[in-house]
Design a protein that fits this description.
By secondary structure, this protein is of the alpha/beta class. The protein is about 50% helix and about 10% strand. Bound molecules: coproporphyrinogen I (1CP).
Length: about 375
């Protein structure tokens, strides 16, 4: 497979001759997250494990999403598929942001073609009071999957993840996917005390879920606040930032890079960084050099429009090079899409993007760093 050849080359560059514990901290992903020089910009794709891959569709057939998330060996294989195929610089755990809610006792299902659907939406003080904390043992299957993966992945880092309080609250309050988040915002504006109580509980759940993953071996984490872009900066700071900060701050002692991402968050980037992110994920609407200015040079992740992958290759190539050039303005750049891989994406295009990013060492190097030794 093309990805196999590619990975060999990448592993060599990432330091296969160093002991495993060193390799885990010197890979391009972790170096870029710390703003250190890299042999090439690291690249992975949000939703890289998924319906764009025929091997994913074959393995998932007949198993519901939540059931798949509870089976460590299946999680391990689904997580590995895009790593083997594309030669990406990181794996992301196959799971979902609602998995810890289910484990904490919320009656919720992931409906194919729709997303998470909550049986009894959370809207009153008694609903919030009934939201139990997450006990780490309730996601023991996630810890087991992470341990299996760390063994399989070798030097390639595993990214653990969780949903941020606002995005989790949106699913719980709306009862499912939502375009305008109107019930969520009505609760937020109408009963701030209840809102903060809800988000406080969700922050604890997200933090426990992330700590389980890092303790089991995840080398970095991403906190998805996918729908935070629905808020003004003032509302984000008032109603959301303290809770996301509790999650990100609660990981500080574990010393893993914390990536924080949302969609449509161009106006929120500085505030999201203030919440405690080491790296801020950016969608395709904000050029990465503009994002880097808003973030005062902090490392960025992103931000190729996932729809560009449906255009002819010469367009894809031009856009990838533009993203790389703009990303070079930041102290570190993790190449990614601006949001998740769309199901109809041709997986061979993703593999070619990885090859292109890995081959673009020199133009991606930041000015003034030419003499830095490469890991
Ligand atoms: O490869 C990977 O990226 C790992 C897998 C992964 C991740 C990181 C899945 C599998 N879900 C997630 C996170 C997630 N889940 C987010 C944050 C990322 C993002 O913004 O896309 C969100 C918002 C969800 C919620 C969710 N779960 C949705 C979106 C619904 C909406 O509001 O539009 C959907 C469709 C799901 C189900 C889901 N999660 C993952 C998969 C493979 C699926 C499809 C399930 C199926 O096959 O039925």
């Amino acid at each position: 497979m093309r990805g196999g050849r590619h990975r060999e080359a990448h592993d060599t560059m990432a330091g296969m001759n160093t002991p495993p514990e060193d390799a885990a901290t010197t890979t391009p992903l972790l170096r870029a997250c710390r703003g250190e020089a890299v042999p090439h910009p690291p690249v992975w794709f949000m939703r890289q494990a998924g319906r764009s891959l025929p091997e994913y569709r074959a393995l998932r057939a007949g198993t519901s999403m939540l059931e798949a998330c509870r089976r460590p060996e299946l999680v391990c294989e689904l997580t590995m598929q895009p790593v083997r195929r594309h030669g990406v610089d990181a794996a992301i755990l196959f799971s979902d942001i609602v998995v810890p809610l289910v484990a904490a006792g919320v009656d919720l299902d992931i409906v194919a073609g729709t997303g998470p659907v909550v049986a009894a939406p959370v809207r009153t003080a008694s609903d919030v009071a009934a939201l139990a904390p997450l006990h780490p043992d309730a996601v023991g299957y996630v810890a087991e999957a992470v341990r299996l993966l760390v063994g399989e992945l070798g030097a390639t880092p595993l990214i653990g993840f969780a949903g941020a309080p606002f995005t989790l609250a949106s699913y719980l309050v709306e009862g499912g996917p939502s375009r305008h988040h109107e019930k969520t915002k009505a609760l937020m504006y109408g009963d701030p005390a209840l809102w903060h109580a809800l988000c406080g509980r969700l922050a604890e759940i997200a933090l426990t879920f992330l700590r389980v993953q890092v303790t089991a071996g995840a080398a970095a984490v991403q906190l998805f606040d996918s729908w935070a872009g629905a808020l003004s900066e003032a509302d984000y700071r008032r109603y959301v930032l303290p809770h996301s900060a509790a999650v990100l701050g609660g990981l500080a002692d574990l010393a893993v890079p914390r990536i924080h991402f949302g969609v449509g968050t161009g106006e929120l980037l500085a505030a999201m960084a203030e919440a405690g992110a080491d790296v801020v994920g950016v969608d395709w609407r904000t050029p990465l050099d503009a994002a880097a200015r808003r973030l005062r040079g902090r490392p960025v992740q992103g931000n190729l429009d996932p729809c560009v992958l449906f255009a002819p290759w010469d367009v894809v190539e031009t856009e990838v090079r533009r993203v790389l050039a703009e990303g070079a303005a930041a102290s570190g750049h993790v190449f990614n899409l601006g949001h998740g891989v769309l199901p109809g994406t041709d997986p061979d295009v993703l593999t070619r993007v990885v090859e292109l990013v890995h081959a673009t060492t020199v133009t991606a190097r930041r000015p003034g760093e030419e003499d830095d030794p490469v890991a």
